[in-house]
């Protein structure tokens, strides 16, 4: 029996409706959650993400601004801009869209964002809090994966989760989140990567397989066991002359083949993607709520 499709749009919509109440509560106190996205250069994928983030903020009534800077923008000027945003009480969340041009040190930029406004969850302070289980901002895509699992009735508790990919953006944080001694976590987590020997033998042990390595359709049907839950984080462009744009988007999972074996699976697009954006909004709202608590 083909897998149940885990609809990221539907679950993201559920979370948006919950956020509407929080946003209305803040507005009744005269606070409008504010998010600034900084985009340096004109990376096409980044342009799309930034547009989608702006649209989501608008729909929920957040204050949102996008600062677009040329690809040759100086690192020092970008650091100064972040300092200004850190000091601006109207802004509760700051997101610098990655990747940055080569002449800018990504680490230096991310470290400069105030941990209290780091709604992407990439600052070392928030990464540390995530690892030890303290409240901070969780990175949006990994947290979105956790919410997808819980809300689709596939709680990771007590399950063996195999994560394929060890990036700082998805692989490592999703492993850290799902192994916490907390409700909606408590999983046994194995992290695989490009240097893992006999990878298929390990992915076949997973009750839940999370694919996040950025290789189109890498996870084949013989790499997952019958009835596994498969979460596909990958978004890859592959050439397709029959498509209107000349390409189509595929995940890191061979969707058509794997859906015949899995019990549940996320599609690409429409799976993890919508969750990333709604979790970013959620972090911005949480930041605004924390600010009002301290006033």
Annotate the secondary structure layout.
Elements: E1 4-5, H1 8-28, E2 34-40, H2 44-60, E3 63-69, H3 75-87, E4 93-96, H4 106-112, H5 124-132, H6 140-151, E5 160-164, H7 171-178, E6 188-192, H8 199-203, E7 208-211, E8 229-232, E9 236-239, E10 247-250, H9 255-258, E11 264-265, H10 272-293
Parallel strand pairs: 1-11, 2-3, 2-4, 5-6, 5-7, 7-8, 8-11
Antiparallel strand pairs: 9-10
Helix pairs in contact: 1-10, 2-10, 6-7, 6-10
Structure description:
The mean pLDDT is 95. A six-stranded parallel beta sheet has the order 1-11-8-7-5-6. Strands 3-2-4 form a three-stranded parallel beta sheet, with helices on both faces. Strands 9-10 form a two-stranded antiparallel sheet. The protein folds into two domains: 31-114, Leucine Dehydrogenase, chain A, domain 1 (Rossmann fold), CATH 3.40.50.10860; 140-272, Rossmann fold, CATH 3.40.50. α6 (140-151) packs across α10 (272-293). The chain is built from ten helices and eleven strands. The N and C termini lie far apart (55 Å). The protein is an alpha/beta fold and 295 residues long.
Short description:
This protein is an alpha/beta fold and 295 residues long. The chain is 40% helix and 16% strand.
Residue stretches low in confidence (pLDDT < 50, at least 5 long) are none
Shape: globular
Number of helices: 10
Tell me the CATH superfamily of the largest domain. Answer: NAD(P)-binding Rossmann-like Domain
Percent of residues in beta strands?
15-25%
Largest sheet: 6 strands, parallel
Tell me, what is the CATH class of the largest domain? Answer: Alpha Beta
Q: What is the residue-mean pLDDT, rounded to a whole number?
A: 95
CATH architecture of the largest domain: 3-Layer(aba) Sandwich
The name of the CATH topology of the largest domain is Rossmann fold
Strand arrangement within the widest β-sheet reads 1-11-8-7-5-6
Cα(first) to Cα(last) distance is: 55 Å
Binned, the helix content reads 40-55%
């Amino acid at each position: 029996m083909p897998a149940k499709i885990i609809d990221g749009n539907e679950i993201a919509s559920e979370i948006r409706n919950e956020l509407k109440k929080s946003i209305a509560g803040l507005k009744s106190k005269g606070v409008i959650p504010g998010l600034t996205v900084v985009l340096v250069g004109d990376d096409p994928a980044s342009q799309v993400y930034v547009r989608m983030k702006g649209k989501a903020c608008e729909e929920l009534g957040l204050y949102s601004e996008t600062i677009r800077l040329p690809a040759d923008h100086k690192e020092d000027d970008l650091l100064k801009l972040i300092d200004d945003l850190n000091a601006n009480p109207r802004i509760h969340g700051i997101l610098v869209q990655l990747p940055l041009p080569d002449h800018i040190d990504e680490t230096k930029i991310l470290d400069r964002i105030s941990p209290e406004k780091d709604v992407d969850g990439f600052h070392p302070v928030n990464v540390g809090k995530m690892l030890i289980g303290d409240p901070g901002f969780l990175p949006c895509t990994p947290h979105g994966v956790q919410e997808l699992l819980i809300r689709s009735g596939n709680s990771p508790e007590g399950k063996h989760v195999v994560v394929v990919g060890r990036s700082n953006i998805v692989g490592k944080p999703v492993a850290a989140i799902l192994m916490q001694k907390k409700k909606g976590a408590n999983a046994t987590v194995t992290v695989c990567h490009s240097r893992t020997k006999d990878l298929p033998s390990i992915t076949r042990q997973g009750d839940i397989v999370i694919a996040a390595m950025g290789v189109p359709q890498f996870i084949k049907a013989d790499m997952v066991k019958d009835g596994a839950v498969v979460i596909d984080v990958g978004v890859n462009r592959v050439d397709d002359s029959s498509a209107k744009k000349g390409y189509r988007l595929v995940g890191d999972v061979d969707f058509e083949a794997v859906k015949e074996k899995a019990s549940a699976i996320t599609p690409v697009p429409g799976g993890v993607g919508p969750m990333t954006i709604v979790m970013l909004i959620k972090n911005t709202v949480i930041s605004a709520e924390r600010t009002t608590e301290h006033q």
